[in-house]
Amino acid sequence: MTEQMTGAQALVRALEHVGVDTVFGIPGGAILPAYDPLYDSAKVRHVLVRHEQGAGHAAQGYAQATGRVGVCMATSGPGATNLVTPIADAYMDSVPIVAITGQVASAAIGTDAFQEADISGITMPITKHNFLVINPDDIPRTIAEAFHIAATGRPGPVLVDIAKDALQAMTTFQWPPVMQLPGYRPVTRPHSKQIREAAKLIADAKRPVLYVGGGVHKARAAAELLEFAELTGIPVVTTLMARGTFPDSHRQHLGMPGMHGSVPAVGALQRSDLIIGLGVRFDDRVTGQLSTFAPHAKIVHADIDPAEISKNRHADVPIVGDCKEVISDLIAAVRNEDRKGDYSEWWTQLDAYRATYPRGYDEFEDGSLAPQYVMERLSALVGPDAIYTAGVGQHQMWAAQFIGYENPGTFINSGGAGTMGFALPAAMGAKMGSPDTTVWAIDGDGCFQMTNQELATCTIEGVPIKVAIINNGNLGMVRQWQTLFYNQRYSNTDLQTVRRIPDFVKLAEAYGCVGLRCERPEDVDATIKKAMEINDVPVVVDFVVHQDAMVWPMVAAGTSNDEIKFARDMAPVWDSED
User: Fold this and answer.
1) More exposed terminus of the chain, fewer Cβ within 10 Å: N or C?
2) Which residue intervals define the domain Thiamine pyrophosphate enzyme TPP-binding in the entry (predicted)?
């Protein structure tokens, strides 16, 4: 099909053809030509956010909740640079989004024109790929390529920067375009020899662990993972980005590894003789001091991105491929092995860890609210079918530890970048992508103040998310480090929210939301139930918690996982034979 139209019309038409139904953005001068035909589109809903960072995180939340590519749009210069943080966040966490930005007219590029910024250059290190389009004829093909790149292989963000004159000029629209992607050939099928080698190591191992990362969820391989784990009987740990990919309630699940992981999960990795890493990065928050990580373990490392294999820890058996196909092939290979691994002694050891070092937390003698208790009650009353989002910090870790995740993709958070302000707009995007699902944003009082203006967007657009502010009056995780490592010198971490500046209930009401406050443990259930009964407007709950609550267990940065503390100055006593 061919048709004469402007570049802006071609952009909107191409978005319709690739299946876009929602775009989060803010108009401005350079992108304004695109907003005119967008006004007429019956297929694409534009959501007018209050800040471009909100648009980017909303696109991430939409993508994570739906498995489709999220889309955000901004104008040139400051509009585009405000997207840098969510683009970087999406890059770290392998989230498929396409960011479309307007650029000054092609003749003005490089002249320091009004609202000009080299957004292609700025984002080059934090995008999977990016495009600068100055010819209107290239717009349909570029959009098709951008969505293909974002969604295939290891997912990630793609930037499409379009000059204003390219949007205004006439072009001949053709669909489908012929994509030109020489050299882009993601490997999805694993090599059979490597699969057989992995199966042999599994049969030989005495203390194996399945180390499961976000790549398993991205590959939609939760069912295959469950089958593989039950077939082999190997214990499972799930990273922050994989929470829910394997059910928390499953007998073989040991919890989350890493800096704030469970003692059984951390201990299992440290004492393992074989780690099967699936869709993981062996990042510093999991490994601790890398030279001391799992010193006796051989490594099977499977990832769709060959650049991740052996990047941090040498892989004895490297497997490049899509985790769904890798796990399916491993299942077949393990079944073909004559021998089956005997892990009975290993499970005896791990069960002892579970019995000795269960999850727990301190309660406060003055009757103050413990944030972990809020999470436990949210988990019990809201349940595992909801989607929970979180930003970064103590609230994120408590949400990871004390909410039970049974379903893949139900915990959406900022893992690699650790972005304050992520939770609320991500919840908005997730709710728009999954309107029939209950969505709770778990936020800190610091994070919430970064992007709370998107409550206005939620109210106006009819997006009834629920927000739980874990309000300890401080930048909590930074304060925890000041407590532990800086002699309790609390430099610039007191947010003064105990003085109710701002008053989060009044702020919620000013944005057209329902505002609730809870300060006592005995009121938590009633408050959560009241929030759950309101489904026509957003609800914000100010949970006022004790400022001294800390996240435990903890491995101090740069130290060995063997030095994990399950409470202050309290470390596990590992087995003497180790």
Assistant:
1) N
2) 391-543
- Verify whether residue 131 is a known catalytic residue: no
Contact 432, 538 (CB under 8 A): no
Cα-based angle 46, 48, 54 (whole degrees, multiple of 5): 110
* Identified catalytic residue from 477, 543, 554, 566: 477
Catalytic residue among 9, 52, 92, 224: 52
246 strand-pairing partners? 243
The phi, psi pair for 27, rounded to 5°, reads -75, 165
Which among 114, 193, 340, 345 is annotated as catalytic?
A: 114
Question: Residue 250 contacts by C-beta under 8 Å, 6 or more apart in sequence?
Answer: 226, 229, 236
Q: Bridge-partner residues for 540, per DSSP?
A: 467, 515
The amino acid sitting at 327 is I
List of domains in the chain: 3-173 (3.40.50.970), 192-356 (3.40.50.1220), 371-544 (3.40.50.970)
Task: Confirm whether 543 is a catalytic residue.
Answer: no
52 is catalytic: yes
Burial grade of 542 (CB within 10 A; 0-12, 13-18, 19 or more):
buried
Q: What is the C-alpha to C-alpha distance for residues 506 and 143, in angstroms, rounded to an integer?
A: 43
The total number of residues written for the chain in this structure: 578
State the catalytic residue, choosing from 60, 128, 131, 164: 164
Of residues 286, 299, 293, the one with CA closest to residue 202: 299
Q: How many CB atoms lie within 10 A of CB 39?
A: 8
d(CA 457, CA 546) in angstroms, rounded, equals 31
φ/ψ (deg, to 5) at 415: -85, -65
The rounded distance, in Å, linking the Cα atoms of 41 and 21 is 10
Does 115 qualify as catalytic in the annotation? yes
Spatial CA neighbour of 128 closest among 161, 153, 103: 153
pLDDT in tens, the chain (578 residues): 689 999 999 999 999 999 999 999 999 999 999 999 999 999 999 999 999 999 999 999 999 999 999 999 999 999 999 999 999 999 999 999 999 999 999 999 999 999 999 999 999 999 999 999 999 999 999 999 999 999 999 999 999 999 999 999 999 999 999 999 999 999 999 999 999 999 999 999 999 999 999 999 999 999 999 999 999 999 999 999 999 999 999 999 999 999 999 999 999 999 999 999 999 999 999 999 999 999 999 999 999 999 999 999 999 999 999 999 999 999 999 999 888 889 999 999 999 999 999 999 999 999 999 999 999 999 999 999 999 999 999 999 999 999 999 999 999 999 999 999 999 999 999 999 999 999 999 999 999 999 999 999 999 999 999 999 999 999 999 999 999 999 999 999 999 877 899 999 999 999 999 999 999 999 999 999 999 999 999 999 999 999 999 999 999 999 999 999 999 889 999 875 44
DSSP one-letter string for 385-399: TSEEEE-SSHHHHHH
* Residue type at position 450: M
pTM, full prediction: 0.97
Q: Is 148 helix (H, G, I), strand (E, B) or coil?
A: helix
60 a catalytic residue: no
Nearest CA to 390 out of 378, 530, 381 is that of 378
C-alpha 15/C-alpha 160 separation (Å) is 12
